[in-house]
């Protein structure tokens, strides 16, 4: 028992002496800062779609929504890493509700404006696309802060993977997939701005959803999109 007591006493003396020589505090901790950081590598967005350059009589009476998600590779252009370029790849889904009926078949679609006195249950078309954005970036980020102002502008090209239109007037329901008149390639410009996680984004399509073969009364359809939404960037 005495040997055990002496052993414990000597251990405490040694530990106390060691602790006096090696005093640790929060000030002595070293936190490594990544000076070669990259920002905003993933994105996800939700947007409202408005149709512009629409044919006479076409209107949108309900909310047309869309969402997108993808990856952007950030390439800083200056030492402070406040300027960068970011190419990427992603997917986007957009839904358009309106009063233009698409009937017929995928190889022979027929387009017409629904009269105001005609009731219908559903009328929409939707598209799922793969998109290739290219962003030019300015931000006030630093290696120590994840909250900063950003202003990003870009150009994107998207390719049509899937499309579907639905017209249901309560008597008949017409569903068309793979409409030959939809333009496979769409391209447009956009700008994103905000602070921290919350950012507004505006996108304007430079070409029409439809090819020149899509017509109403021998007049080609010309329908572009203007989207307004929010986008979230993630490291």
Detailed description of the structure:
The protein is 9% helix and 52% strand. Residues 1-6 and 8-31 have low confidence and may be disordered. It contains 1 helix and 14 strands. The radius of gyration is 29 Å and the shape is elongated. The protein is mainly beta. The chain has an 8-stranded antiparallel beta barrel. A two-stranded antiparallel sheet has the order 5-6. The chain has a two-stranded antiparallel ribbon with strand order 12-13.
Task: Quickly list its features.
235 residues; mainly beta; two-stranded antiparallel ribbon; disordered N terminus
Largest sheet: 8 strands, antiparallel, barrel
The average pLDDT score comes to 85
Task: Indicate the overall shape.
Answer: elongated
SSE string, helices as H and strands as E: HEEEEEEEEEEEEEE
Low-pLDDT parts are 1-6, 8-31
Main sheet: strand order: 1-2-4-7-8-10-11-14
Write down the Rg: 29 Å
Distance separating the two termini: 60 Å
Q: SS-based structural class?
A: mainly beta
User: How many β-strands, per DSSP?
Assistant: 14
Measured by DSSP, the beta-strand proportion falls in over 45%
Tell me the helix content. Answer: under 10%
């Amino acid at each position: 028992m005495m040997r055990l007591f002496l052993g414990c006493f000597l251990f405490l003396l040694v530990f106390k002496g060691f602790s006096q020589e090696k005093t640790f505090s929060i000030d002595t901790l070293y936190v490594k800062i990544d000076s070669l950081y990259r920002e905003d590598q993933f994105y996800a967005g939700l947007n409202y779609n408005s149709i512009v350059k629409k044919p006479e009589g076409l209107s949108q009476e309900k909310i047309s929504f869309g969402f997108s998600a993808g990856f952007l590779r950030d390439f800083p252009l200056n030492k402070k890493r406040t300027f960068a370029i970011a190419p990427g790849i992603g997917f986007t889904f957009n839904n358009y509700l309106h009063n233009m009926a698409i009937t017929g078949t995928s190889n022979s679609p027929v387009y017409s404006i629904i009269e105001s006195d005609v009731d219908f249950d559903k009328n929409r078309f939707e598209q799922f696309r793969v998109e290739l954005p290219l962003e030019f970036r300015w931000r006030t980020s630093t290696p120590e802060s994840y909250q900063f102002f950003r202003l990003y502008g870009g150009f994107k090209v998207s390719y049509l993977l899937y499309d579907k239109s639905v017209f249901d007037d309560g008597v008949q329901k017409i569903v068309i997939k793979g409409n030959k008149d939809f333009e496979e390639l769409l391209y447009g410009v956009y700008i994103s701005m905000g602070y921290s996680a919350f950012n507004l984004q505006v996108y304007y399509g430079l070409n029409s959803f439809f090819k020149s073969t899509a017509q109403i009364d021998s007049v080609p359809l010309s329908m572009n999109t203007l989207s307004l939404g929010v986008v979230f960037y993630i490291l």
